[in-house]
Amino acid sequence: MQIVLFEPEIPPNTGNVARLSAAFGLPLHLIEPLGFSLEDRYLRRAGLDYWPHVRLRVWPDFESYLEGGLAGHRLVMSSSRNGLPVQNFAFNRDDALVLGPETRGLPPEILCRADACVRIAINDAVRSINLSSAAAILAYQAMASTGMLDEIV
């Protein structure tokens, strides 16, 4: 299982996802362009001293990721309003959990490449959930449903 952030924009969100990645032992893939530098102090602060434990790959574009980072993984993309409810989705250990940029989500030309699309149930009064919160919900649900949480020491 891996986490993929497509064109993330906000450094602290990506830093929080990096920390999540380190905590769960999941590779983190970032698809450029990024809305920040990887040297950004807010990015580093959010990831704290866990950066050495993050298996990070940065890709110049989505096609490069598909060619080099996806091997053996099913693309499970997130959407704020479309797709199967995350709690009802049958995750696999080889899933790539793909989340879009904070201000606009995944564009149609990326969403159409999904093997599956999931959504987190939220109240209609809220447009979406913060990127790092959504990544945590998806990763935890996916790992719990596949038994991967039981393997964390």
Task: Please supply descriptive tags for the structure shown above.
153 residues; alpha/beta; Alpha/beta knot; 31% helix
Mean pLDDT: 91
Largest sheet, described in full?
A: 7 strands, parallel
Helix and strand succession? Answer: EHEHEHEEEHEH
CATH architecture: 3-Layer(aba) Sandwich
Structural class of the helix and strand makeup?
A: alpha/beta
List the helices and strands and how they pair.
Blueprint: E1 2-6, H1 11-24, E2 28-31, H2 41-47, E3 56-59, H3 62-68, E4 74-78, E5 84-85, E6 95-99, H4 108-111, E7 116-119, H5 131-146
Descriptive report:
The protein has 153 residues and is an alpha/beta fold. It has one domain: Alpha/beta knot (3-Layer(aba) Sandwich). Helix content is 31%, strand content 19%. The protein contains 5 helices and 7 strands; from the N terminus they run E-H-E-H-E-H-E-E-E-H-E-H. The protein has helices spanning 11-24, 41-47, 62-68, 108-111, 131-146, and strands at residues 2-6, 28-31, 56-59, 74-78, 84-85, 95-99, 116-119. A 7-stranded parallel β-sheet has the order 3-2-1-6-4-7-5. Helix 2 (41-47) links the parallel strand 2 and strand 3 (56-59). The longest helix has 16 residues, at 131-146. The two termini are 17 Å apart.
Short description:
This protein has 153 residues and is an alpha/beta fold. The chain has helices at residues 11-24, 41-47, 62-68, 108-111, 131-146, and strands at residues 2-6, 28-31, 56-59, 74-78, 84-85, 95-99, 116-119.
